[in-house]
Each structure stands twice: as C-alpha cells, then as structure tokens.
Write a structure and sequence with these properties.
With 375 residues, the protein is of the alpha+beta class. It is 33% helix and 29% strand.
Length: 375
C-alpha cells in the first residue's frame, strides 16, 4: 500500500494540476475584476476539494477528513486518523496574474503522535514538498535575517520585532508558500498572528518540522491539531537558531490576549460587513440571521452572498467601539456601525448574538438601535 507521505504528495500533486489547468484557462495577462478573481478562487477551492475527498475516499476510506471547504464532521474527534486539508491556500493570490504564492496543503494527523505525513504543493513553481524528503537549505548569503509575514494581515508587532533582532520583513501570500520559502533558504522565518485555522498550518508545519525547522505557537507552545474547534491563530516557523530571539522578542512585545476561536469567527463576520469580502467567514449551511425580529437570511450561502453583494451593506464604512462577551457557545458583540461619508455619516448601535457551537456560526441575532449621539 502507498505510504501516507507518498499519498499526501500524490494528492497535493493531483490537486495542484487541476488548479493550474483551471487558472491557466481562466486567467490571462489582464487582471480579473475583484469579484471575478474571488470567484475563480472559490471555484478552484471547490473543485480541488471535490477531487481530494474522492481520492481520500478511495485510498483511505476509514480515515476522517477536516477540510476548509467542507462542513466540519465532528466524528473526526473519535477517529485515530484525520486528514487535514486546504485545497487552495492563498485563493486571493490564485486569482492574480503572476502570483506563484498559492498552494495545496495535505496533512495526516494521528492520535497520540500529531502530524505524521504532510505535503505542500506550489503548482505555479512546479514544486511539491513532502515531509521527510529533504532538509532546509542554507540561507542565501544574507547579512540580516528575513522574516515573512502575511500579505494581508501582518502581525501588529512585526516592525518592532524586526528592529529588535535586526531583521528585514517581506510580505507573501499562502502560509504554505511562506513556510516553503523558509525551507528553501529564501527566508529565515515566518511569523503569523492574524488568525488562522488548522488547515492553514497543518501541512506546512508537518513538512517544516520533518525538515528540522522550529515550529510553534508565538508563545512557544506546541501547535495542536484535530481539536474540537479548529481555530489555530498564530505560529512561528523558523531556522532553529532564530527561535529563541523571535520568541523572546514576541513575548516582550505582546500583552493583549488573543481572540478565542468563537470571538475570532464573530470578528471575521463583522469585518466582512465593511470589506464586503466574506471568504474567511464560516457559516453552517442552515445558518440563519434575524434583525430586530425580522428574518434576513435563511442559509449560510445566502448570507455570504448578501454580505458581498447586498445593497444594504454597501453604505457601511466602519465599525468602532467594538466589544465582545463570550460564554459557552455564545458570543455577543456590541458596536457602533457607521454608514455614509463626510458630513453624511449615520451611526447605529448594534448588539449581535452569534451561536457558535462548533467550527461554524449557526445563527446570528441582531438588535439595531438609533445611536444616541446620532441626533
């Protein structure tokens, strides 16, 4: 039978070939409109996910799967073997011409051990990295360490951290792309603190750890996978000799506690009200939304579509004075929401209740009131 590591590599390769063919067919030299680029990423995610689920069903029918593109089946918690996959990591970059920093992530978690096999494919570079196949390359003659961060969500502390250890900082897309750049010796560290999920880091960590790189949370604690809630917000992947300076520096520069998984999910939803990009929002298929007693959404896909295209959300320009409270599976957000611009800003006070029993938001109940200072 094919080894798990070889299977991970085969799966990453097959999904990468599919994604590359789709991208080459749809994406020319002229950049797509923002909505078209987003839809290309979603199509790639969906088609690659279908392929991977089919192949895993054939090759490892008894194993469970945790995928970014599938509803979370909590039966995985009782399964000793769980494949953690991200069919397309870096979907934003995937929709942009000339960007190679997107990837396919395949990892196998086994109870009592952790990640035991992993592969990261970078199809635009023609590369597939499999755990145990190679060690890290030497740095390319750099005088200063090079730290990679998220293209869209760099850590707030990264400037001060870089100054502290005398490093340079560069942005890049996919988590897998950043981790593999460290593996290739093109960078010395990848630091993230802007929120992630298990499928974002499982495969990159599996490949990097097997190659001898340091991998941990930003507080130095281990990265633990197949948890009841698959939110895993931060990580450090770096050359071993940089681990202590980075972790010590981060410890001195960070004081605020990180969002809990449920608060992070609610925050993603609220951010999409302003950005009109709901690609990171996780709603269950039968999620519903109620505003002041009126049903305004009957399914997850419907609510996602409204967040991105609904006329009622287009005037929203900002959220401020945001506070969260959490108990059990419940998160309540209280905030002021601004609509319009200049002298024509209207503000309303909103209390929004999110029911988050697992890895998806299942209901949203909102109370919208006039803001006392709005006149």
């Amino acid at each position: 039978m094919t080894t798990d590591a070889a299977l991970a590599g085969e799966l990453a390769t097959r999904a990468g070939e599919l994604l590359l063919e789709l991208r080459n067919h749809e994406l020319g030299e002229t950049p797509l409109e923002k909505t078209q680029a987003r839809e290309l990423g979603r199509r790639g995610d969906k088609e690659a996910n279908t392929l991977l689920l089919g192949l895993l069903g054939e090759q490892r029918p008894a194993d469970a799967v945790l995928s970014e593109e599938s509803a979370d089946d909590r039966a995985r918690l009782d399964n000793p073997r769980v494949w953690i996959i991200d069919p397309l990591d870096g979907s934003r970059e995937y929709g942009l011409p000339g960007r190679p920093d997107w990837a396919v992530h395949i990892a196998l978690w086994e109870r009592g051990v952790g990640i035991t096999a992993a592969a990261v494919a970078q199809p635009a570079l023609g590369e597939v990295y499999v755990s145990g196949s190679a060690g890290p390359a030497d740095p390319a003659g750099r005088e200063r360490p090079r730290i990679l961060v998220s293209d869209s969500r760099p850590p707030e502390f990264i400037g001060a951290l870089a100054e502290r250890i005398g490093a340079d900082v560069a942005p890049m897309g996919s988590a897998g792309a950043k981790a593999m750049a460290v593996l290739r010796g093109e960078a010395d560290a990848y630091v993230h603190a802007g929120g992630q999920w298990e499928w974002d880091s499982a495969a990159p960590v599996g490949v990097a750890q097997a190659a001898g790189l340091h991998c941990s949370r930003i507080d130095g604690t281990p990265l633990i996978y197949n948890e009841a809630h698959p939110y895993l917000p931060d990580l450090v992947i770096c050359r071993p000799e940089l681990a202590r300076p980075l972790l010590d520096g981060i410890a001195e520069l960070t004081g605020a506690p990180a969002d809990s998984p449920r608060v992070a999910m609610a925050r993603e939803y609220l951010a999409s009200l302003v950005s009109h990009d709901a690609s990171k929002v996780r709603l269950s298929a039968d999620c519903f939304r109620v505003e002041n007693g009126q049903r305004t959404g009957d399914s997850g896909p419907e609510i996602i579509a409204e967040l991105e295209h609904g006329e009622q959300y287009k005037p929203i320009t900002g959220i401020r004075d945001l506070e969260f409270r959490e108990w059990g599976p419940n998160v309540v957000a209280r905030f002021l929401l601004d609509m319009g611009a200049g002298e024509h800003v209207i503000s309303v006070a909103i209390t929004e209740h999110f029911a988050v029993p697992g890895g998806e938001i299942e209901s949203i109940l909102a109370i919208i009131e006039p803001h006392a200072a709005a006149g």
